[in-house]
Task: inverse folding
């Protein structure tokens, strides 16, 4: 039951109001990174009933409430809705960032709101309402926050840091797989056993309405967990003059995967490739040749492979040019979009692995 009759909750709430240790708690504002609200005895009473139904020992429930009354710092969980594929179990990206199927996220009202999954792990279906797409993946961010009387500035900084981590995660997922990823709503929630599932009188939500990925989701290569973690860490540590263009290239690669494979895809991939392969001062050489030579140099393994990669990068550039100048690509180019995607992905990964761009003037194919 999501709610209880007042005759069950009221006696417990009255008893809580008479406890000196909890009275002070009910007069303080509880802060998350996105909201602030007053703690009420009614909310804790409701939570206690749920804890009892879950067979949690009474002494443990009381100990949790008393601990909350004297706690000043608590772990905050930010649930971020992600539309994507290639993740079948929890992947720890870093100490404070993880990605997992939505159903594996910790139960809370935040999970219910963002993903439509109730406390028992069941999808919520409301009679008379049309179904709306819900994110299938949860990015979970955790960090310690001042939960009482926290400053607005501190909350803003925490929220900004969360946004930076989410963006870095999406880039790492993009480079470690062939899947599309887009971001939706996010809600912060306090991770303390005394905090009721329903929250403390409110919640803060934020996020964007990015486009939900189209086709090709089922056929993409899955996320390489180790590579995702490596890229997340390495990309954040790049020098700013390398980091900025590289991030722009990754964002274009991610965008190319969200919409239906088309001339728009070829255009995005071509631009992502240009950012990486044409980086640096101009040289007196045809652009498509320079583009193809540098791509082959970056990712090929031997002279024979370089010849093949040169042709492949040349074909990718031609598809980009066709899309830019005519708004269309031919059937042969359409059939190679997945190949172009991988060429672009590998080139970006190589730059990150090198920690910068090669000396393009000393290429030896």
Result:
């Amino acid at each position: 039951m999501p709610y209880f009759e007042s005759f069950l909750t009221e006696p417990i709430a009255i008893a809580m109001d008479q406890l000196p240790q909890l009275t002070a708690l009910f007069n303080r504002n509880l802060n998350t990174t996105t909201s602030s609200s007053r703690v009420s005895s009614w909310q804790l009473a409701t939570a206690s009933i749920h804890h009892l139904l879950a067979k949690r020992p009474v002494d443990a429930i009381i100990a949790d409430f008393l601990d909350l009354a004297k706690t000043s710092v608590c772990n905050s969980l930010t649930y971020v809705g992600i539309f994507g594929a290639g993740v079948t179990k929890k992947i720890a990206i870093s100490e404070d960032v993880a990605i997992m199927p939505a159903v594996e996220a910790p139960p809370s009202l935040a999970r219910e709101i963002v993903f439509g999954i109730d406390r028992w792990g069941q999808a919520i279906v409301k009679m008379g309402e049309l179904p709306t797409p819900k994110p299938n993946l949860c990015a979970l961010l955790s960090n310690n926050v001042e939960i009482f009387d926290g400053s607005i500035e501190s909350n803003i900084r925490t929220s900004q840091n969360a946004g930076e981590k989410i963006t870095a995660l999406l880039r790492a997922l993009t480079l470690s797989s062939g899947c599309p990823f887009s971001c939706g709503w996010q809600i912060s929630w306090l991770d303390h056993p005394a905090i009721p599932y329903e929250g403390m009188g409110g919640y803060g939500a934020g996020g964007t309405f990015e486009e939900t990925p189209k086709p090709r989701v089922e056929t993409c290569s899955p996320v390489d967990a180790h590579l995702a973690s490596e890229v997340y860490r390495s990309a954040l540590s790049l020098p700013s003059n390398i980091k900025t263009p590289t991030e722009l290239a990754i964002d274009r690669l991610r965008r190319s995967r969200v919409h239906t494979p088309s001339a728009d895809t070829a255009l995005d991939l071509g631009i992502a490739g240009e950012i990486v392969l044409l980086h640096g001062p101009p040289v007196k050489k045809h652009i498509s040749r320079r583009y193809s030579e540098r791509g082959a140099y970056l990712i090929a393994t031997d002279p024979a492979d370089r010849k093949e990669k040169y042709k492949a990068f040349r074909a990718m550039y031609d598809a980009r040019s066709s899309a830019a100048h005519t708004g269309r690509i031919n059937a042969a180019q359409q059939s190679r979009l997945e190949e172009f995607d991988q060429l672009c992905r590998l080139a970006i990964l190589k730059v990150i692995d090198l920690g910068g761009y090669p000396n393009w003037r000393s290429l030896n194919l």
